[in-house]
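Interim report, section 4.2 (structural modelling).
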Amino acid sequence: MTNDALYHEGMVRLARAARGAGRLAAPHGSAARDNPLCGDQVHVDVRLSGGRIAELAHRTRGCVLCEAAASLLGGAAPGRTRAEVALARARLLAMLSAGEAPPEDAFADLAIFLPVRDVRSRHECVLLPFDALLDALARAEE
Amino acid sequence: MKREILAGILADAAAKRSVVLATDLGSGEARLVRPFDPEPGADAPLVAAAREAAERDASTKVELGGATVFLRVFNPPVRVVVVGAVHIGQAFARMVQLAGYDVLVVDPRRAFATPDRFEGIPLAVEWPDEALARTGIGRRTAVVTMTHDPKIDDPALAAALRSDAFYVGALGSKKTQAARRERLRAMGFGDADLARIHGPVGLPLGAVSPGEIAVAILSELVGALRRPGEPIRP
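Predicted structure of the assembly:
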């Protein structure tokens, strides 16, 4: 599928909104992940409070899919626990590669990535910001 | 050479700024002149002569106001930024080094930008606009894009067009160039800016292999450096 077909308007808008873009001055945990074939790079800073994400900021450069996923996380992740983010990541993977329905909770907007199901090589682009956030959360809890 | 003159030359070298040491061969008096960023009140004919020498990258003797002055040009090294750790880039980067220029290969795709593919060549696994902002783009910089991926090539070209780079080249077919021009136009670049992009890049030699294409690009680049504004005939 060409990028033009894959990147529908809602996804591009989400990417451009870049929710959560930035840095935290004193993060509890930070992590970076990249996609060696695509060039996507995501750095995530996170602060926790009472076991939940109090603040999140990311520096993301990459394709529209990666930037849209990071923007979605910027909006949906604050207030969530590490377990909830891990579950969302699992639901996202199942939606993309196992034909399952999108989640219906705080991460319901992941439905926006349904068209990516058919393009296996781009799944990692959507998952990358989640993986970076999970790494940052793991470091925050150390 | 006086210490403060040497210090001035070194400071400008560190800042990647051109500077000319003008020495009056009669009196021995020497002073530094910035050809492209002259101090207010600097002697206009001296600045103009220094500028011409710096542009030609050739130290020279001139007659100024009845005195014979030797202009010693100190230009920053020519630097070529190659965007795309791709096949052609592997040949091109090595040729750039053989031509005596500095080279930097930039590609955010870690799978491509590996030291074993680019032995002895400076690599930046970064997005090109970030790499170019970090290293700076000046009159002695050339930027050539070759990833064929607009999300990587376009930011590099945009950064190059906003600078004084002496050569901006973009690999890609005529069809790709047209689409790229429209995307850059949508970013706010006008006809004069877009005309700076050499694309399809390289002299029309009929080059086929990555090595041949690299020769064609490097030849065009050298022509842009040494004969700016002149068409190069293969």
